[in-house]
Amino acid sequence: MMSSKKIFKRSCISVVLGVVATTTICAENSNPNVIIILADDLGIGDLGCYGQKVLSTPAIDTLASNGIQFTNHYSGSTVSAPSRCVLMTGKHTGNAYIRGNKGKKGADGVMYSLDLPNDEVTIAEVLKKKNYQTACFGKWGLGSPTGEGHPNEQGFDHFFGYLSQVNAHTYYPNHLFENKEKVHLNRKVYSHDLIMDKAISYIEENAKNPFFVYLAPTLPHAELIVPDKDLAEFKGKFDEKPFKGGHYCAQSYPKATYAAMVKKLDNSVARIVSILKKNGVYDNTIIIFTSDNGVHSEGGYEVAYFDSNSDFRGSKRDLYDGGIRTPMLIQWPAKIKEGSVSNHLSAFWDLLPTIENIVDIDKQSDYDGISILPTLLGKKSQKKHDALYFEFHEGGTKQAIIKNTWKLIRFQAKNKNKTYYELYNLEQDKEENENLVNKYPKQVKKLIKLMDEQRTESKQFRI
Prior knowledge:
The protein has helices at about 60-65, 80-90, 125-130, 190-205, 230, 255-280, 320-325, 350-360, 375, 440-455; strands at about 10-15, 20-25, 35-40, 70, 75, 105, 110-115, 135-140, 160, 175-180, 180-185, 210-215, 285-290, 330, 340, 345, 390, 400-405, 405-410, 420-425. By secondary structure, it is an alpha/beta fold. The strands form five sheets. It has a ten-stranded mixed β-sheet. It has a four-stranded antiparallel β-sheet with strand order 17-18-19-20, with helices on one face.
């Protein structure tokens, strides 16, 4: 539990309407429940609502048809830990504390990500100030069991899942964590199923209180594996190239397994919607669905086979749009018009200020995001980003800046003798095929200046 933050429980009066339906009326206000579902390495092209033709995602697609679909949305980063840090704190990778998958060994010998410091303000901490019950289920990746980055130290009343990203590379782990205690599974339990059961139970137990659930399943991140009963439907349907294994497990049916993992993810979304309806809180619950970065090409999976990156170039670990352009669907039946579509330029760092706006709380920290509540409500008062900034610290540090229709990528940023640039007009060339860096030198110069202005120096992630 957090020693520096007082937690207050709000009192609610349950009023029974008719025989079955129950509506919760809270003494202070009627703030909506909030559920963020963060898929792991799911490509924007993997969803039917974004053009997928082979994989079936009816439950996720229904979030789009019942709410709003963003067509110009970016993740926090092109890999997991920094993307999750950006989402939680509203700071892009030029200002976020965690800007890469850098880690350190814990006392148990396991590699954990850097600990998110106590002075960072998370979405959970914002909502605790409005007396929300808060829980995280799935992959955390922002701290260690005994560090200040643990979810219980960052505003979450309850946590169940993976603390270590490395441990999250297996779906049959030795253990998971419940709060700060290890739950030993001895590689006998498929983790996603247990994590979902815990999340469903939590929602049911807290349906009479305003709650925030951060659901971060590891699907469809490698390793590629599902229980046999889930694989059976897809086995033999695709032209397979068996994966011999290495860091990830061997898999004879990598394409079929990926398809099964996507379906399992979709079924999990259906379970969430079902439990909300069962408990009478569906209409006043916001569901936000997105993915932490672009699709992976690991464990035997081939990105191009299902067009997982849609029409975009690149995948996970790229700063091309295939690595950072992600789906975002937001459903709020009480407020958002069904079937809405927005081309508004948005990113992960917009979610914290949006939630502050929704629950009517003053700005709690410095951040880079802009509330997109006007867009959600169909209003014309939406503020826009001057630019979006990204940096990535593997394989030669890369940076990217997007302003209007222009995108500039700087490669080998740490080595001035090797640094080079690529410039694209995303409106005319969304596939990023034509490098215009030599054609528009003045534009390049302006974007380099803007790029350099976006970041603060970091001891952990120097450029």
